[in-house]
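Page 42, continued from yesterday. The earlier attempt failed because a stray header line got pasted into the input along with the sequence. Redoing it now with the clean sequence only.
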Amino acid sequence: MGAWALLLGAPWIYALIALSVLLDVFLPVLPSGVLVITAATAAAAGSATGRVPHDVPDILALILSAATASVLGDLAAYRLAWRGGERLDRAISRSRRLTTAQERLGGALAQGGGALVVLARFAPAGRSVVSLIAGAAHRRARDFLPWSALAGLSWAAYSVALGYFGAHWLGTTWLATGVSVLALFGAGAGAAYVMRRRPA
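This time it went through. Structure tokens are written below.
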């Protein structure tokens, strides 16, 4: 427990969250959302006990570190796919779902409807698919990155709010963390459902 408490203390938690969020665009199985919620729960515990600020994570710093890492990860995947060339194009063309997703995303970005990028940030692996497809389709960065920034900020703020307010309402226990994580997964399932139901 001592080692875990040390990791949850600033500045380690910011680096851990940033690294996890940055990499989960390539490895969607990483529990970046769980880490953000756990850190926000620790912040709520610290504010409740009146501990000094440097001993507990700062809410604003948690949001900024998670959102910044989210955008940087999206940009890395976008640039990688941009340079992927014909091999990536062939891989996408072999999948009807990826081809359809590419067409829908391209149309959404071209029409200023990048809300799809924000929605995809909450869906399981949605961020990865959107970033890679935007790059593979050579969509302009100025069409994609503002929506990526809004998506990262929305996801980070939502995740932190779940952990922080969940701890205040349910107490700083594993139950509160579990309920908050379930709410995050529920938002992801809802986003995935909405994306599937949207007309092409």
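Notes: The CA atoms of residues 44 and 50 lie 10 Å apart.
Reminder to self: strip header lines before submitting.
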